[in-house]
Amino acid sequence: MAVVLEAKNLTKKYGDVIAVDNVSLSVEKGSLFGLLGPNGSGKTTMIKMLTGQTRPTGGSATVLGLDVVQDPIGVRERVGIIPEQETPPSFLTATEYLDFVGEVRKIPDVQKKADWWFDFLEFGDKRDVLCKDLSRGTRQKLMFTQAFLHNPTLALIDEPLINFDPIMQRKVKDYLADYAKSGNTIFISTHILAIAEEICTGFAILHKGKLLHTGTVAELTAQGQHLDDFFLALVRKDDHA
Question: Where do the domains of the chain lie, and which CATH numbers do they carry?
Answer without folding.
Answer: 11-79+153-241 (3.40.50.300), 88-151 (no CATH)
